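DM from R.C. (forwarded with permission)

"hey, sorry to bug you on a friday — could you get me a structure for this? deadline for the figure draft is monday and I only need the backbone to look sensible"
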Amino acid sequence: RHFGAWAAVVSVITLSNCLDFGLGNGAMNLIAGAKGGNRAEQIPEIIATAYASLLKTTGVLALSFIAVPFLPWHRLLGLSFEDAGISTASVAIVLFAVLSTIPLSLANKLQLGLGIGGKAFRWQAAGQLLTAAVVILLAKAGYGLPALVAGSALVPISALLMNTREFLKSLPKPNHPIHRDHQISRQIRH
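My reply, with the result:
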């Protein structure tokens, strides 16, 4: 009886790619332009500005957590009143996953802009395989909706986190302090 609710809640994560409001694609295009135009010195500033912009966006969207306990998620998911608690917990888990995905998925876009997207896709594939294994194990063990949602929503974040960590570690250290540039910020948004 919870399968439909699980599928509906987890499918929301797919929409999180749109929640960066195009900032990831804007940063990817600026990175590709800087790399292709022999302006490599701009890349660290583009990266810093893109992360700052996405963290602001995520902060604003995090305010949506305020509404989670007050909405009748069990009704929206077609479940009974007895499932109100697990419905709210499941939605909170997905909302956390979506908000975490927004800044963590930026590394994927930046890697594409730099022409090293294969590294991002390798982590993404590993995350999806691990997610499938975890969800199957949780389902076979008889865990409930919140555990299945957590397995589906939080395991891929570990792959994003590892990719982001590897990407940021691989960046060359700039010779001067990096400052966020308002002009670059405008270019990313447009």
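R.C.: lifesaver. The radius of gyration is 19 Å.
me: no worries. Residues 50 and 134 are 32 Å apart (CA to CA).
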